[in-house]
Every structure is written in C-alpha cells, then in structure tokens.
Amino acid sequence: MPRLWNETIETHRDAVRQAVLDAAANLVAGHGIAGVTMSAIAQGAGIGRATLYKYFPDVESILLAWHERQVQAHLSELLKIREQTVGAREQLGAVLHAYAFMSHAGHVDAEVARLHHSRHAGQAQQHLLDFLAELIHEGSAAGVFRADVAADELAAFCFHALGAAAGLTSPEAVLRLVTVTLNALEQPA
Amino acid sequence: MPRLWNETIETHRDAVRQAVLDAAANLVAGHGIAGVTMSAIAQGAGIGRATLYKYFPDVESILLAWHERQVQAHLSELLKIREQTVGAREQLGAVLHAYAFMSHAGHVDAEVARLHHSRHAGQAQQHLLDFLAELIHEGSAAGVFRADVAADELAAFCFHALGAAAGLTSPEAVLRLVTVTLNALEQPA
C-alpha cells in the first residue's frame, strides 16, 4: 500500500541529494576546495544545515559522492563509445580520445579526483581503471599492445597521462597527447 | 647599524613561515584538504590566529606556499641528478626516475599539487616543467626523442604520467612506469 508514498520519498531524497552535489560543485568551481563549508553547501542547495547533515556527514563525503557521479557519467559514455568501435587498438584509441576531452573540459573534476588519495580511488574511478585495463589486456592478447607491463599498470599510466589534457589550451594538443600516450602502449623496439 | 636586528627579524619571520607550512602539511596529511582552517593551522604552528593572518591571507595561499617549497626542494635534487649524468636520454631517464620516486613517496604533495588548477601552476612547478622541456628539447635536437610533438607538451605528459607513481605499491612498478613513459618519447615507428 505505501509503495507510491515510498517512491515519492525516494524521488524527493534523490532530488535533494543531486541538489547538494550540484551546490558543492558550484562552490568548488568558484572558490576552490579549501574553505568549502557545510553551511555554504546547505545554502546553495536551498536546504537547512541540519537537513544536510542527515544526508552527508562532512564536505569530504559530498565531494566524493559528486566525483563518483561525474566518473559514473563518464564511464557510461565511454562504454557506449567502445561498443561503437571495432578492434582492440581502435577501441582503446576512441576511448582514450573521448576521455582526454572529458579531462580537458572538466578542470574541477580533475581537481576533486586528485583530492582523494590515489590509493583510495572511488568505486566509479576503479571501474573506469578496470575498464581501461580490460581494453588494454585484450589488445595485449591480440599482440597489438605491449605485454611486458601488466594491463592495470598501463591503465593507471593512461589515466594519469591524460590528466595533462586539463592544462592544454588547444584540441590539437589534446589529440597529440592521446597519440603520445597510445605510443607508450606499443611493443617497445 | 640595524643590520643585525633586521637579520634577526628576518630569521624569526622565516622560522614562523616554515612552522606554518609544516603545520598545514600535517593537517592535510591527517585529515585531507577539505576542512583545514586558519585556526587549526595557527594552533599547529604555535602562534595566534591574528599573527597567522599577518603572514598569509587564507588556507589556499598557505597550501600554495607549502607546495612551492616542496617542488623547489624536488627541483634542486633533480638539477643535481642531471649534472651527475651524461647524454640526453640518460639525463632525462635519471631525472624521471628520481621524480617518479618523489611522487611515489609524497602522496600529499601530489594531492596539493593537483588542488591548484593545472592552468595556474605555481612558479616552482613551472620551473620543473621548463626543466623537463629543456631536457626533452635537447634530446629531440640530438635525434634521441621524437620531434613531432613540442617539448613543453611532452614535459606536461611526463609530469602527469609519473603522477601514477603515487598509487603504485612496489618500486618495481615505479620503474616500469618510468620505462613506459620514456618509451612514449621515442620516435614513433
């Protein structure tokens, strides 16, 4: 009987959650991470400070949740791109290309991403790394990529190298970055 | 006449400055960047909050100064390493090797480094990038490294790629990361 009511509550809670994440992202974009407070986030989301604490214990957890949402959205995009491409090299090329432009467009993403210790990557980021490792592993098995370094290490290398895209000023430079990164995956002479 | 007195004041001011940077670094190491306050830093440095504001306007500027100090120390090390090595490939290899292990050891460094927008890299970080670009440029001129991508773009690529070292768990993995990064600088087939 209370099914509809529960759904309504769930929808409301999700809307509040999304508003909180949006408010936190806006504050970080405007002022940087240091100094972002729970009060400012509550105000930005249009809720009371006490209500905010029912959703998240601290600023860190909000930024982590926001980052998870971003990476999850990126990952969905990248999975689609992979499905539209054939061949190990072409697939990884298309995926790294798309990811480099995501990194190029999202400075704040990168900022928050690196805020979290590399050793404690969020779940979505770990999925992204696993996805890249899978593509690289397929390519290594097919003799397209080097096999002397483990696929997960090469995935982490690609992920970090493409972070340089955030500081590049032209799309051409982003393309060159993707090429250089892919060259590193080739069997060394 | 007031020379000695001025020197004493300068020495004192520098000691306070260093204590503030150390206190900020300890707080970030313990709790992460979000939530670090001027009050906590002042307490950690053993000075009053009002005194702290005579040195730095906000947390962001303290973290930036701390990061500058870290990168400057790293850069001095890397310059020494370069002088002890002969040959463009060997020099860059030795420098990237040393930098990768600095990145591997200093998680917090990396965290703060990335806090600052890539577009607004500190002065010391820009010097580090210029130094890497100079080494790569010499290597390209000598036909050792690829010349189809500008040296400053390749320097940014190396800098970011080696950031992956912070998340690696073994020294062997760090060495493989350096090798893969260097492979990317070779003339593509």
From TrEMBL, chains A, B:
| Residue ranges occupied by any HTH tetR-type domain in the UniProt entry | 14-74
Q: Entry's InterPro entries?
A: Homeodomain-like_sf, HTH-type_TetR-like_transc_reg, HTH_TetR, Tet_transcr_reg_TetR-rel_C_sf
Single Gene Ontology MF annotation = DNA-binding transcription factor activity
| Residue ranges the UniProt entry marks as DNA-binding | 37-56
What is the residue range of the signal peptide feature?
A: none
- Keyword annotations from UniProtKB, A to Z: DNA-binding, Transcription, Transcription regulation
Per its UniProt record, what Gene3D superfamilies does this chain match? Tetracycline Repressor, domain 2 (1.10.357.10)
UniProt name for this protein: TetR/AcrR family transcriptional regulator
Instruction: List the taxonomic lineage.
Output: Bacteria, Bacillati, Actinomycetota, Actinomycetes, Micrococcales
